[in-house]
Amino acid sequence: TPKTPQHEQPEGPENPETPVKPEQPEKPEQPEQPNQPEQPEQPEGPVKPEQPEQPNQPEQPEKPEHQRDQKIRRHQ
Questions:
Q1: How far apart are CA 66 and CA 11, in angstroms?
Q2: Where is the composition biased (Low complexity) (predicted)?
Q3: How far apart are the C-alpha atoms of 35 and 42, rounded to whole Å?
Q4: Cα separation of 6 and 12, whole Å?
Q5: Per-residue pLDDT of the chain (76 residues; tens, 9 = 90+)
Q6: Global confidence as pTM
Q7: How far is CA 46 from CA 5, 34, 70, in A?
Q8: At 72, is the secondary structure helix, strand, or coil?
Q9: Angstrom distance (rounded) from CA 67 to CA 73
């Protein structure tokens, strides 16, 4: 029987190590990272979609297009 206690002793050191593993369950807590998926909520900042409202700038390119039309007519 004295041998059995000895076997238990080697297991003792392993137990202290096991508590460290239980800490790993903290990683499962990482699923809280879904907060990052919340970043997609940033699209809520339709500010970018509002940029399409800048079509006012595209109107400037339209001016050169008119000039091109004039050039085309000249070629004709």
A1: 86
A2: 32-45
A3: 12
A4: 10
A5: 556 555 555 555 555 555 555 555 555 555 555 555 555 555 555 555 555 555 555 555 555 565 666 666 666 6
A6: 0.11
A7: 69, 22, 39
A8: helix
A9: 10
